[in-house]
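Q: How would the structure tokens look for this protein?
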Amino acid sequence: MRRVSCFVIMQSPSHALAVSIVQLIVLLLVCISRVITAARAMQNVSKLVCTHSGCFSSYAAFCAIFGGVEILLSVVPSLEEASWISVFGSSCSMVYLLITIVLGFIKGMSKHGVS
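A: Here is the predicted structure in token form.
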């Protein structure tokens, strides 16, 4: 029985198109989940920091703010010359992680527990 490598199978244009479509769908879904996660994190921080009723904590507004930041960052001319973009992205991921840990700790230490 002859073995056929995956690379040989993917050389046809129809297979390449199918893989490209699947990759774009995955990329789109990852971007959507990133915006949702960022907006939730910002909303939770605003609820934690501001305890009175007149606070700004609209989920849709936080999605719009994060989307605006993404649009501003997308107009950076060359990513080779802007290594700070990678630092910014890594920092955002670490901040999301830190927010999750802190909010989980605060919720766990409260009398209400995890809901």
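The chain has one domain: 14-109.

The chain has four helices and no strands.

Upvote if useful.
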